[in-house]
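Problem 12. The chain below contains 257 residues. Write out its predicted structure in C-alpha cell notation.
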Amino acid sequence: MIDAAKRLNLQPDREVEGGENLCEEHQEPLKLFCQDDKRLICMVCDRGQRETLSHSLDISPELEQKFDDFTEKNSSIKELLEKFQAQMTLDPETAHPMLYLSEDCKFVWWEGCYQDVPSNPERFKFDPCVLGSRGFTSGWHCWDVDVNREGIWAIGVAKESVPRDRWLQLKPDKGIWALRHYQNGYMALTSPDLTPLTLHSVPKWIRICLDYEEGRVVFFNAESKERIFAFPPASFQGERVFPWFMVMWHAQLKLLP
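Solution.
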C-alpha cells in the first residue's frame, strides 16, 4: 500500500475476514514490505513474480474511502511516509521583491511594497513567487506547508526553467504543477481548464509529494492523509524540479517542520 501512496497506482485488493488484504494478482496475504519498491507484497511476489500495478487516476469514491480507511488503520504506513520528508527552506535569491521571508527562511508573507533587494537572474520579477532551496532530478520527496484561509496563494512544483522576467503561465505544459487557494476555494491548476476541488475538510497542513521518475505530483492533507489531488503523469525531461510557492493579498505560508 505504500507503493500506492507513492505512485497512486491504486487497485482494489480483496480482504479476508479480520481485515487482512490480499494480493490482487496472486490472492495471497500482503505480509511483506519491499524495501526496493517501497510497497507491501505477498510471498509469491517476493519470489520474483512482482507485477507493476496499473495506473489509474479515475478512482471511485469507494476505492478512495478504502485507501483512507487502510491508511488510518495502519500506523506503520504513516511512519513510512514520514521517512520521505525533505528538509526544505525557501530560497531568498528567487523571492519576488514583495515577498518577505523570515530569518530561518521557513515563513513567507506578502507586503504591498517593494523591498530593496539585489536584482539577479533567479529572482521572480513579475509574479509574487519563491522557490524552495532544494531542487530534484530523481527520487521521491515530500514536504509539508502550513497554509491559511486568507489571501491568494498557490503551492506545488516548478521546473527550473520557468521564466523569472515575465508573467508565468500556471499550468503543467508550462512547467508548473500546483494547487491554488482563492476566495475560500481550492483549484488544481490543470490544463487546458482549471479543476475545482471539493475537499472533505479544510486542510491546515498540505503535503506535496514528488515522484520524479514516475512524473507524479500529488497533494495530501498532511493531518488526515486524505488525498487532495494527483496530477496526471508527466515527463520532467531530466530537468531539475523545485518546490514552488506563490503568495499575495495578505496570504502567508510556512514550511514545516
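Discussion. Confidence is low (pLDDT under 50) at residues 1-20, 49-60, 73-77. Students who got a different answer should revisit the alignment rule from Section 12.3.
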